[in-house]
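Tutorial handout. Part one gives the primary structure; part two gives the three-dimensional structure as tokens.
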Amino acid sequence: MSFDSWIGTPALVLAVPGAIDGDPDTSGGIGRQMADLVRAYRPEVGIRFGGTAGDRHHLTEALAGLEPTDDHPLRGVVVPLLTAPHAPTAAAIHDAVRRTGADVRVTEALGPHPMLAEVLHLRLAEAGFVRADRMRLISVVAPSTSMTDGVVVGAVGGTDAVNAAGVTAVLLAARLGITVLPADLDDDAAVAEVFGQLRDAGCTRPVIAPSVVGPECPESRVAELARRHGARVSAPLGAGSTLAKIAALRYAEVLNTLGVETPPTADQLPAPVGSRHRPGS
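Part two.
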């Protein structure tokens, strides 16, 4: 995956929604973790990250030094750490690009993508809400009061985000064999309607599965909705090798539009090595 000398290697810039405060358990930690994970797939690329808000580690800092030059057709590629379109984050990214004058392309969000359903399945299994085949993450529901019989795939970002979550919901339902519906976690009425549909379908043990990386949706918001509707919650997608693989694919898609390389498929990307790169983690 090398480049001709006249092309250079565009930087890969991860845009973290919200502010980065440096705490490893917050969005700053996700930015650092994802940069490390993506580096396993694109070791030849300079990888940076920055938040879309706040005073520290802002995206404008990550875009510094990427101004246009005559010998490089593109200086960087910005990959939003989002699973679906999110207007506030998109506006913040474009504002940072405008302020810095960086010569970059902004990719689509990480989703919709078929691999997101696999990660959501894993998060649900980790919480003990579904069963999972150790090899293929299939086969799931067992007659147990701890197992869920209905899942709400939570999205943030409005109609486009819900549509993206709907794709994941369909794939997740096929894996779980239970009712799975998408909902906008920012819309109280929409969430209430979806929980009503689950009740009508006979669901008595609902679970909210946030189809978000993490920073774009406060955990307190999800916890509040769970309490209101008598549901449990699985963890957000978080940083993981699957999301890193999708980010690397988004980067390659932009390079393909420049004629630099043909984007690899997910199966063609090299498998990262090390315990922190466990498949599907």
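Part three, for discussion. Helices lie at 27-41, 59-63, 87-100, 114-126, 159-176, 188-200, 219-229, 241-257. Residues 1-7, 275-281 have pLDDT under 50 and may be disordered.
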